[in-house]
Amino acid sequence: MIAFVLATIRTGYEYDVVDEVKKIDGVKEVLITYGIWDAVIRIEVSTLSELDRIITSIRSIKGVEHTVTLVGV
Question: How far apart, in whole angstroms, are the C-alpha atoms of residue 1 and residue 17?
Fold first, then answer.
């Protein structure tokens, strides 16, 4: 299963958040973006419970303000 997480990050924390997100098992790519979303995170997992674990980890990182998750089918 592939999912994308769109994240809003507090100003000044973008690179710190990206560095932390890259350490999470299952995260395959993290891009800093310009526009409404500050980062796009590509995740590959086998189960929804793995996806839940990763999203919970991302949301707990200091500087992450809001996320939206898109699950590919």
Answer: 23
